Amino acid sequence: xxxxTARKVGSALFILVVWQLLVQTGKLNELFLPAxxxxxxxxxxxxLSGVLPWAVLVSLNRLMQGFVYxxxxxxxxxxxxxxxxxxxxxxxxxxxxxxxxxxxxxxxxFLLWFGLGDPSKIVTIAVGVLFLVLVNTVTGVKSINPLxxxxxxxxxxxxxxxxxxxxxxxxxxxIFTGLRLGAGMALILVFITEIEATKAGLGFLLWESFQLMExxxxxxxxxxxxxxxxxxxxxxxxxERVCCPWAQRS
Amino acid sequence: xxLELRGxxxxxxxxRTGERVVALESLSLDVAAxxxxxxxxxxxCGKSTLLQIIAGLERPSGGEMRAAARGADxxxxxxxxxxFQEYALFPWRTVLENVxxxxxxxxxxxxxRDAAARRLIEMVHLGGFEHRYPHELSGxxxxxxxxxxxxxxxxxxxxxxxxxxxxxxxxxRVLQDELVRIWAxxxxxxxxxxxxxxxxxxxxxxxVVMTARPGRIKQIVPVxxxxxxxxxxxxxxxxxxxxxxxxxxxxKQAMATDLGAPAAP
Lengths: 250, 265
Hints:
- The complex is a heterodimer of chains A (about 250) and B (about 260).
- Chain A has ten helices and no strands.
- Helices cover about 80% and strands about 0% of the residues of chain A.
- The two termini of chain A are about 20 Å apart.
- Chain A has one domain (about 55-245): MetI-like fold (Orthogonal Bundle).
- Chain A is globular and about 75 Å long.
- Chain B is of the alpha/beta class and about 260 residues long.
- The interface of A and B includes residues 152, 170 and 247 of A.
């Protein structure tokens, strides 16, 4: 183990052990800060009982649907708006108007329009993801070296071929930046939309535990959200490595 | 004649100031098949613009261009292919994928285009590097890829826009010899833009000396020196001196224009 790794593992272990000891010796109140081991135990029990896996599945379903719909619309619209001027002119004012709005503020409206079920949550997540992906895709298209477009035309590429073989791959690294940001946004929004108007999901589990003062279960929810975030990031990194082998980040 | 230029002109207005820029003023020239034609001139003389016009990437403001009939193979082969100074390789494509780009967009069957591309990659001495990405290659190697990519489209005419200007002196010298070899091997017409006198003397069969902006032909100098050429030979040295004399005034004037001084009458 390298010195750097040792320091990192040491730092994490040290805090966890001190935390555990402080709770066990009664210096910290379990109601506010449950010990790491009891959180782990609760997590294990909730997994065995099926409560946690179900909550994760429900949230993951909303998260992935929202993320995928938002990404697809964002990428397609971004590629077109980035490469065709008049489309950009049409899209631009809407992006400028909606982009700065916290997408959680739109949730009440979507509840009103799409009801209490999953669709309102999925739409909220999709909209949050869409704008991040859209803006980054447009940036990606604009950042393509114009010389490459010229070279493609010189080699005989049609407009469609330029789009598929130059603009799309050229924008891909920025598209992935948008997807990474969108993934973070999707996690935030799935939590917020599950606080109200639902009886299932990880956000609901966390929030209900808080209202019942079951702090241990709140921590279970927090840790699980963290794990979901890490898994999401890793998954995206893997896809990016497969899709953009030329743009290896060191 | 493979290409006839008649009164080619190009001018545009700078949007901010409304100032009218004349890049090319009525340029006429016949290009013979198989020659290594050099356009030599100070920067800003419109030689790159002329190349873009020949490539069909820009429309001339006036004049016309006649090209010899194409060998019709029903696949829409292009008359020209361009090699750019900054290589313009697709960073997401490997060497092989870059080279096949032209045939690929013309829908040449995969086996056929790959085989042809591999032959060309051998020709530019990049065998073994087929699956590297451009960022994994040196500048000289990238320009070899760009050359193979232009050749892969099997054009009648190859256009070069100062292709070696971004390379170090040694690599440039090596690639100059390579270009002459490939020009001789393929028998294609090369039209080559440069501001380097040395390059013009080493490479060309005919040197078109351009005036400072607006670009016009100042003089056409045929070069019949035997190959391999070297700047240390007497013939080459004399030619260099002659070109230097021809170009000195133009460079002075180009500098003066750059500095905003009124052009000499």
